[in-house]
Input
Amino acid sequence: MDKLIFKVRNLKKVYNNKIVLDVDNLNFQEGKIYAIVGPNGSGKTTLLNILNLLEKPDEGQIFFYNQEITNKSNSDTLEIRRRMTLVNQDPLLFHSTVYDNIAYGLKIRSIPSKVQKNRIRSALNIVGLSSFKDRKANQLSGGEAQRVVIARALVIEPEVLFLDEPTANIDQKHMDVVERIIKKIKKEIKTTVIFSTHDLSQAYRLADEVISLLDGRN
Amino acid sequence: MDFIFEGIQKAFQLILTSDSEIFNIVLLSLKVSLIAVILASLLGVYLGFLMAVKDYWGKRFSVSLVNTLLALPTVVIGLIVYSLISRRGPLGVFGLLYTPSAMIIGQFILAVPIIIALTHSAIQGIDKRVRNTALTLGATEAQSAWMVIKEARYAVLAAVITGFGRVIAEVGAAMMLGGNIKGSTRVMTTAIALETTKGEFGFAIALGIILLFVAFSINILLHYFQSKRV
Output
């Protein structure tokens, strides 16, 4: 049987007295692609942020490989947080080159620059932007930027990759490219991918399992 | 009128022959102001950053306070520091009065609010997603803070350069705290003030030209960094 990477139990998040997330039971298996589908404001981003340990839930528990991670100290969460990464819906590139952007996650992990070079090359390969490494980040189109942020996430070799609405802000052509990249990630790197989308057909096109969220409930 | 032209002529002679007294005065000016600004930057950039990103009690008051301190007259800084470090003052035992250290303290106090205020607005102008993006990529809180400062690097550098421009050109604190002692605490501004009253226009004009040149270079640098501001 496949290993469970995430187990979520009775998760609740409240903002300004309003329940934005109320999930009883969710399981995520290692190496699969999951789509979280729901309209805007249904709690998709909040769920991804909580799983990525960027936000704390108000109630409930999350298990990462059967280890409870909900109420850990900061130094422990950093260690776990570094095994996953999230690409935001409206991603930001730092004001530097494509190469330096992708190198950031490796630099803060003190990975030797020789290793960095190789990993950056293969990450750019996966997103099909091998010739872009010396480009300035602010000269990229929206679709290219989206592919660079995916490369920046992949270079870390995360065990889980969260993508928040990865195709919401880009044109049709780049949408196809990004979808192909997601399939490639599963096939070639076997990283678990959890992405959110409001496009049901996209969810079924890409995901092994589709989780729907409506008003914070699944 | 002749004395002005003679003064200018003498000034160029002094500059072109790199007169040793002028050279030493310029060197001391640069040394005192650079040390003051480096120390002020360490504190000012840090505080300006905190003021921009942290929520704390009295935040609005502290912003107003810093903005008020931008208008702090240099003679008032001189007065305050003088009363602290003069023989009878609480820090009198250190014998700081009329030393370059005293001038550094005065210029430090002058530069800190400038650097805080400009860093504060530089950091406020940085996209909130920078910190978040750094965190998603596995940064610690400190690493994400550093990334925010790095993104604001040109504006922060401009803050530091503005601070330097302010302190190298000030005369009140340098005069009151340094005492304008020849060979020890005489800097460009205090020397100009003295030589002018002595009627040594050549010497004063020579220093004036160098000071203007420094100010001009600072502005070129500032303009360069502001144009890179993104």
In short: The domain at 2-228 of chain B is CATH 1.10.3720.10 (MetI-like fold).
